[in-house]
Every structure is written in structure tokens, then in C-alpha cells.
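May I ask you to comment on the folded chain given beneath this request?
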Amino acid sequence: MTDDTVRRGRWRGLWPRRLDPYLAALVGTVGLAALFPATGGSARVAAMACNLAVALLFFLYGARLSARETLAGLRHLRLHGLVLAATFGLFPLLGAATALLTPVPLSGQLQTGVLFLCLLPSTVQSSVALTGAAGGSVPAAICAGTYSSLAGLLLTPLLAAWLLDVHTALSAEGLLRIGAQLLAPFLLGQVLRPWIGAFLTRHRRVLTPVDRGSILLVVYTAFSAATAQGSWGLATPGALLGLLAVLLALLAAALAVTGLGARLLGLDRPATIAAVLCGSQKSLANGLPMATVLFGPQAGLLVLPLMAYHQLQLVAGTVLAGRWARAPDAAPAGQAPPADQVPAALTGPGGPPVPG
């Protein structure tokens, strides 16, 4: 067997053989909202259903997350500190810089969307899958993504209220609204986990359509409002090209800085892979519901940068995973971690939607 054959085989194992149906559904939902937006009474019904869907998503997050297994991963303190610093420190600084340094300024909504993207937590599922394919530390990636998601429940709304001056400003009313729609369902899920956690784990394949259907409803509601408000006129070809350039620059900077930070902290190779992949990714599944809570009917085009960045991070992560997997000192790609180090609710098909 030649080296070229081996390389092609490894790429086939990392690169998807067909378009992910869920990603196709996301794009189709945006098109549906552009052609047939919910207006009038149907818009109010869609908004109410969207609020319920957001509460359901965060309830399921809480019910599936084992506090014991999460605390067990605290031994990777340097790695987790790097990921949190990149997610909630580096990215907000880069997002603010784009408004000043971008050669072609983006429209108000797209620029706000870029900054909102930079305030979001990292992923779990995609970063774990890519870390495993690259021969990195899967348990570290699981815990890093989980801690980032938990921190994002508090930090993302606070940073958004401070940096974006959204209508949910730092007031008692705004914080209560965020708590009621995000934190309360999550905490309720944690409280009920001893009774329903095992059931959710056993039936995670069945519940996947519930998770993804809820996110599709959030997408449809947000882009319906954008269509009704005539916001699509801002998404000109020039604006979209400028947005693509900004997102590519953000991703490149995040990858470079997290890689440098891992070397300076003396992380070993598996931990470095986990840190780079977790520290450079942003959660679509967390970001879309948060946008509806923070921006309401104005969410529309504000989530377009997030949806575009999600695709870019998957492509870049796949390419990097391929390079790491081919390295002479690489660990076996996709090697399973010890069972006692992997939270069962965070692995396998139908795991929590926190990741995406």
C-alpha cells in the first residue's frame, strides 16, 4: 500500500461523505423564512413556541449534564484556563477590533452579529469529534467544552449587555428575563437529573429530533422577523464577502493564539490539540437560543455570522485534524478514552445539543 493510498484513506475517514442533513435543514429553514415568513398572528405564535423551545433546550442541557463527571475533569487546569481565556477574553477583543480595523466596514447588524459571535461559549460535540480524530485528549475536550458552555450561561448575557447595549441591559428586569429563559430551565434539569437523566441517556437517539427541531424553530423565527423587517437588503454580495473575510481572520487568529498559548503553557500534544480545537470554536446550538433571548425580533441577520462561522470552523477543524492524524508521532485517531473519563450523556449520536 502506497503512502498516497494511506493518506487518502485517512482523509476519507475524517471528511464527510455527504452533506450533513442537519446543516442542509438549517440552510433550508433560512430559505423558508425568506420566502414564507411568519407574520401577524402566526409570528406571535412562532415567537411563543420559540420561547418554549429555548426553555426546553436548556432544560435538557441541565438534565443530561452530570456534575460529578464534570468536576472530575478539573485536573486539566491549564488547558481549561486557556480555553476560557480564549473564548471569553481573546474573542471579545478580536470582535471589538473588527469594528475598527476592517478595511470594508460591515453593516450595523452584521457587525453586531460578529461581536455577538465572539461572546459565545465553545462547543462540545464537534470539538470532541475532531479532537478524537486528530489523536488529541478526548476527556479534556469534553470537559473544556462543558465548562465553557456552563460559563457562557452567565458570561455571554453579561458581556452582551455590556458590549452590545442590547435591550436586556444590566438591569433587574433584564437579568430576570435571562434567568427565567435560560438559567431556570437549566437548573430545573439539574434538579430532576437523578430521576430523568438515565431515561434521557437511554433515549438520546429518539430525542435528537426534539433538540434539532427546537433549533430549527429558533432559526425560522429569527429569520422570519428579519424578512418582515426588510433586513435582507443589508446582506449584499459585498457585505457577505466582507463578512467572510472577517470570519476567516477571526478563526485564523484564534487558532494561532491558542496554539501559541498551549506551547507557552507546556501542554503535551494531546492537550494542545484539545485546547486549539475547543478554544477556536463557537457553539451554534447555544448561540441561536441566546440570540432570541437577548435580541428578540431583531435577532434575524445578527445570527448570520454565527451560522457562517460554524461552517468555517468545521472545515478548518477537519483540515487540522487530518494534518495532526498524519503526523509521525500522532496517537491513533479516534481512540476511545477510558469509560470512567467520558460523561455518557455527552457522547454518541443524540448527545446534548450544547455542542453544535
